[in-house]
Design brief:
Blueprint lengths: L6 H13 L4 E6 L5 H13 L2 E6 L19 H4 L3
Length: 81
């Protein structure tokens, strides 16, 4: 697994892979990975050469009484493996 902190770095890597005619699949998430995400990743693996999974916690998706501060953000808390 390779992690990227910068969208620009990831974009460069994806372009490099596509230049090599590799098929890239994308699974967007907000972290807190669960079985549904894992199933999407497995399907993406079957249909492509490389799977990219985003973990982006968007504060604007939380309502007034929802607890953004308790949402898992640290990668080790998010990944089930």
């Amino acid at each position: 697994m390779i992690t990227y902190e910068s969208a620009e770095d990831l974009s460069l890597r994806i372009r490099h892979l596509q230049d090599k005619s590799l098929k890239v699949s994308f699974v967007p998430t907000m972290g807190g990975l669960h079985e549904g995400h894992l199933e999407l990743m497995k399907l993406a693996q079957q249909k492509s050469d490389v799977v990219v999974v985003s973990i982006f916690v968007n504060p604007t998706q939380f309502g007034h009484n929802e607890d953004l501060n308790n949402y898992p953000e640290h990668l080790k808390k998010i990944l089930p493996f």
